[in-house]
Amino acid sequence: MKHKIFSVVAFGLFMGLLPISCTDLCNGPCGCNPVFTTPEMSVRGFSSETLFRTDNNEPINPSLFYHFNALYKAFWVSDTELLSQTTSEGNGPWFTQKAVACSVLEAHSKETLQSLRVINKRVTQLPGETLIMDQDITNKFFITETFQVEYEISDFLKTSKNFFRDENLYLKFRTPPQGETELLFVIEIELSDGEMFTLDNETMRIK
User: Fold this and answer.
1) Residues 76 and 174 placed together within one structural domain of the fold
2) Which terminal Cβ of the chain has fewer Cβ within 10 Å, N or C?
């Protein structure tokens, strides 16, 4: 019976019927092929949204104020231009079946995140200080990719972050406000090729 089950599984792998991850390119039935080159894209635009951190990351009600420690400004690459198609090495029917069974890599941006600035656009009173117009308030925010680990923005920039389309980054205000407070600011995103993108009139209503 065991021999029969093994034969069925082996046949499925040979025919490419069972999915095989290409993360173990040389350690499994895929052998060392197919080897996919990572496709590249160029960033053409960003979008943003304010999210209240819950199990489902709910969009906020714009008329309400939310606890500052659970409110995030999400931004992501929403417009791209594909620069290279996915290519692979290998030939023949056996390679074709392996390519179908193995995963293709997702395109990432050729640009990396060079600079990120948050500029205040409203005089705002915080405990012990007043934010003035056009003040750089980048250091008032943490940045995170997964909500599990938060970074100083200056430290995160050192990672030379590439982008995947629709992959979110999140900003969180780090200072407890003085009662109900509405922040108004601009996010300036500079990429390694010198391109600058601006997200205007961003708001966060915190308490």
Assistant:
1) yes
2) N
